Amino acid sequence: MDAEEILRFADNLVFDKTGKRLDDLQRAVVRGAWQRKTYPQIAKESYSTPRNIRNVASKLWQLFSQVLEENITKSNFCSAMERYQISKISNSGHFNLVQKGNINVCTETLHHPKTSKNSPPTQTSNEDDTQQKPRLDLRDAPDISSFYDRKSELATLQQWIVQDRTRLVAILGLSGIGKTNLALNLLPQIQHQFEYVIWRSLGTSPTLFNTLKSLLKFLSNLPEIELPASTDELLSLLIDKLRSHRCLIILDDVQTILSSGQIAGHYKPGYENYGTLFNLIGKLPHNSCLILNSWEAPLDILTFTADRSEVRFLQLNGLSEVAASAILKDSSLLDEEKWPTLINFYGSNPLYLKLTAQTIKNLFGGKVAQYLSYEPAFLSDELMPILQQHYQRLSQIEKQAIAQISNEIEPVSFTELIAKCQASPAESFTAIQSLERRGTIEKLCCEAETFFTMPPVLKEYVKIVAG
Q1: What CATH code would you report for 386-466?
Q2: 137-151: b (≥16 Cβ within 10 Å) or e
């Protein structure tokens, strides 16, 4: 038997005994033992630690000892498996044998239904994962607020996570656009597909070490004192858990570990090792999914090409006019014929509309027409700090570029924008690309040229601070 044949044989033995399939690390141990590799070699090939591989192997040999009814160790695993297979085939009366040393070994390959590495785990009648209740840790998840039509986005995320088995999903967009609310409303639709569901906020900028400890305390059900003491060991243990269990992890407010004053996507000093976590989750095969909610995407996950399903990006834009109008209706605003103007000014951003609606009610008795009669439109004290956070994150060259766009009534062409920026074409190109990734400018593609514009509310803010 070659390594793949022994894996199929071992997997079916375990399934017959326990009703469960071998997980990725158990398969790595079986394959490595069959190929006479050491535990450190197996650990290196599977991105784990020797200590963890030994622990997995120890439990696995105990399991095979029960199945084969003899004491199994790494050293006798190969011979024991060959003896057991021969005894089973001999008892069945259907076999073809060839000589291998002094042992007759069956040459007939056992055929079993093939499953894709991305297919759901095989289930028994008692183990329908659509009926299992996952273990939930949603202590960092905020309460669900009013949710307005995001059916298309929900369907897309469900397709990516459940059907396509995407490993990492980044939900991106400006503050208040509804990233967190979208993820919260997605959970009831997909959580039954997972064994563990964890929501963590990075709003306080925890180190990767502390984030990993928090995740593993729940996934491993271990006290903190029993967890590894280094970030690398914690990272290896988390990857092991994501392989052996189907886990859904949501990290909210990821932008807080990213740097301000630079091109989008750079980490704050001391937080660069989050990139290792995101890269491993995107690249390595496992059964789980990580959702990132952020104003911008970390640069390292942007290296995953668009034609790969392992990592996906959902840029969340404003609501439809119908959904945005529902917000204004719920806020009891007047002058419905003026609502489209208000919605367009705030880019259909749910939070911006809610804050503005409250201002209109307080100052103008809900009269939208009266509010819009003031030009330039004033921005409320509640909204100004939010816009300021976005502006302060920009690099100097980005601020120059966005100031140029804010001064234009019509969308500005790429060629014109490059010419007006006080920087080299290469620097200007990088800045424009970064602004688009942040969602602070919008790209309009025409046949002959690419144009850029920005939501009127951002234009107004930039004029205030840069004027």
Answers
A1: 1.10.10.10
A2: beebbeeeeeebebe
